[in-house]
Amino acid sequence: SQQGEEDPQALSIQEGENATMNCSYKTSINNLQWYRQNSGRGLVHLILIRSNEREKHSGRLRVTLDTSKKSSSLLITASRAADTASYFCATARQKLVFGQGTRLTINP
Amino acid sequence: GAGVSQTPSNKVTEKGKYVELRCDPISGHTALYWYRQSLGQGPEFLIYFQGTGAADDSGLPNDRFFAVRPEGSVSTLKIQRTERGDSAVYLCASSLKPRNWVGENGTEAFFGQGTRLTVV
Question: Deepest in the core among A27, B4, B11, B105, taking most CB within 10 A?
């Protein structure tokens, strides 16, 4: 069964705008990770945030984590057409469990 | 190898047949995961190996599904008496993962490109 739920399920924005995706989960975690998937095949790790961290940055990515609300958000700033993909959050405790994903489309 | 390798990349089989899907993890990675992904869905956890043993097989849908990792490296996912509902992309991932994900290092999972299984 899926641990996380992403919101929105689909997001379409113009190139240059910021994209925000949210993830909610149900149980306690050791860390939360975000992955990207192109064309329904392999996933690529983007960023990891530990349960005792509240915010983390990596390039144009910013991740927040609120363990009291069991939620996380991924912000992609200054989006590019190449950012078009599906984005998944994954919670890590005994195993790595993925949410349903957000399909992001960046329009040139 | 440089990354996680899955073979075959595509497999078409008839309903009722037996199939084996292979995963070659990154050398030295102790943890290995199998996931199943249907169109428009997130990866669904199937089984996780730490070394040679299955640390968690709670995601295997029924006893037609079985996975092995006899030498702690290559893993094979086996599906007996395949059904049309088994059609999906089967993803394998590996990591250095410490137990219980404690610690920063080596916790990211590296995925293969998947095997697209079609049962007709």
Answer: B4
* Nearest residue of chain B to residue A41 (CA atoms): B113
What is A5-107's CATH superfamily? Immunoglobulins (2.60.40.10)
For chain B, what is the domain count? 1
Radius of gyration of chain B (CA): 14
Chosen for mutation from A31, A43, A48, A93 (greatest number of chain B CBs closer than 10 Å) is A43
Of B37, B100, B108, the CB nearest to A94: B100
Q: Which residues of A touch B89 (CB under 8 A)?
A: 40-41
Q: Measured between alpha carbons, how far is residue B68 from residues A35, A100, B72, B83, B114 in Å? A: 26, 27, 9, 21, 17
Q: In chain B, which stretches have pLDDT less than 70?
A: 1, 97-106
Q: Could you tell me which chain B residue has the CA closest to the CA of A100?
A: B42
- Mean pLDDT value across residues A4-20: 93
Res B102: pLDDT: 46
Which residues span the domain enclosing B78? Answer: 5-119
